[in-house]
Amino acid sequence: MTQIILPTSYLAPICYYRNLVSYDEILIETAENYPKQTLRNRCYIAGANGVLMLTVPVVKPDSLKILTRNVRISDHGNWRHIHWNALVSAYNLSPFFEYYADDFRPFYEKKYDFLLDFNMLLQEKICNLLDIQPNVKFTDEYLGVSTAAFDADVKPYRQVFSHKHGFIPDLSIVDLLFNMGPEAILYAKPLQWF
Fold it and tell me: In terms of C-beta distances under 8 Å and separation of at least 24 residues, what long-range contacts does 186-189 make, across chains too?
């Protein structure tokens, strides 16, 4: 049985989902000391002006270290509204945004307390949309994230703003989903060479 240890991730990059379909068991590292400024609370999408980073604000912990599973989402800055508007602006012209918008909108209307819960519910929704059923479990103790988890070799696909910026690899999985729809899983799977 093959196994990989991944961090929790906000609208994870395509390579993350490649790992979800490539391994028999996925362990989500929840017992690590939360590292700031990582994909745990960030994602990257392609907007009209290039790559746009979206960051979920988190509550500053009382101590220097906090376990990832205990990180709370901050409600300041109207971030849910900003993120949803950024997704609409970036992908409203994509072929499948309208088809999937109602699946994602509720995540930006409801308040979530913990980053891990928010990320995992989004991941579950995306897995359902991709029609994949990864065997996901959580770590009880620190094991560390697998270092080979983020191979960014992604087959090019049509993107909304590729005429301005060319193909931008390994953005958030939503870029692939909104642009390619049901065919997204074909791009999320590992490259097959014959």
Answer: 187/14, 187/154, 187/155, 187/157, 188/14, 188/17, 188/18, 188/21, 188/130, 189/18, 189/21, 189/22
